[in-house]
Amino acid sequence: MILDAKNISKSFRNGSRELPVLKNLDLEIDKGEIVTIMGPSGSGKSTLLNILGTLDTADSGTIIVRGQNVDSLDDESLSKLRNNHIGFVFQFHHLLPEFTAIENVLIPARILGNLSSAEKHAHELFEYVELTDRMNHYPSQLSGGERLRVAVLRALINRPSLILADEPTGNLDKRNAEKLLVLFNNICHDFQQTMVLTTHDEHVATLGNMQFVLESGKLILQ
Ligand SMILES: Nc1ncnc2c1ncn2[C@@H]1O[C@H](COP(=O)(O)OP(=O)(O)O)[C@@H](O)[C@H]1O
Ligand SMILES: [Mg+2]
């Protein structure tokens, strides 16, 4: 199992009011699976994804990534786990404007000290998404769909076993959204990677071989 989340609860405090967002939620994910989590805005999708990716902590419950309970890890081990095994794709791509597309993709590899071996892989990835001729462009010189594909490559460069994508198609037109979904599908198939993708779009949710709806703080299998 890649990821095992047990009994996850999380509330936010707004002034004196307590807002429960996740309530004793469970999720088990095996290697190679594509899990989609659908829910309207405010249902807690980002909160859940951030907790699964160890960017945020739950109030209670356990997260086990690749057999390791993340509670038992110190900050350094946790950031190592994140850098090595988890790739994030956000709705807003956060590419650094002063770096070219390929430089952006190589940032996580640079952090891990893997730059030389990652360069070849970066070229393969650009070829894979048919962006080889855009490699040396700056983000401002790319279209929205191209930027998002570059952000996806950045999430893939360290060959993470788990990819977490938070409403990745939210900002794309239909055609680019469709292309991105095909890309995700191919990636999971070709590289045996696991993906958790949130969306508010029913059509996007059908990409999953496990499809959940996040409702009242719990995941309901469709
Ligand atoms: N840091 C925070 N402080 C207070 N409330 C928050 C915080 N983050 C999220 N929330 C609230 O938790 C709920 C779930 O938010 P979120 O996970 O972003 O939902 P989604 O991604 O499904 O739109 C929302 O009501 C939101 O306002
Ligand atoms: Mg969100």
What does this structure look like?
The protein is 36% helix and 28% strand. It has 222 residues and is of the alpha/beta class. It has one domain (30-56, 72-221): P-loop containing nucleotide triphosphate hydrolases (Rossmann fold, 3-Layer(aba) Sandwich). The strands form two sheets. It has a six-stranded mixed β-sheet. Helix 3 packs antiparallel against helix 4 and helix 3 packs parallel to helix 5 (144-156). The longest helix has 18 residues, at 174-191. The chain is globular, with a radius of gyration of 17 Å. Adenosine-5'-diphosphate binds next to strand 1, strand 2 and helix 1.
Keywords summarizing the entry:
222 residues, alpha/beta, Rossmann fold, six-stranded mixed beta sheet, four-stranded antiparallel beta sheet, 7 helices, 28% strand, binds adenosine-5'-diphosphate, binds magnesium ion
Q: What small-molecule ligands were found? A: adenosine-5'-diphosphate, magnesium ion
CATH architecture: 3-Layer(aba) Sandwich
Number of domains: 1
Tell me the major beta sheet: 6 strands, mixed
Q: Which strand order does the major sheet show? A: 6-7-8-3-9-10
Secondary structure tally, helices: 7
Estimated share of beta-strand residues: 25-35%
In CATH, the homologous superfamily goes by the name P-loop containing nucleotide triphosphate hydrolases
Task: Return residue spans where pLDDT drops below 50 for at least 5 consecutive residues.
Answer: none
**Secondary-structure element pattern, one letter each:** EEEHEEHEHHHEHEHEE
Return the structural class.
alpha/beta
Q: Rounded to an integer, what's the Rg over CA atoms?
A: 17 Å
Distance between the termini: 21 Å
The helicity comes to: 25-40%
Mean pLDDT figure:
92
For this structure, what is the CATH class? Alpha Beta
Number of strands: 10
Q: What best-fitting shape do the alpha-carbon axes yield? A: globular
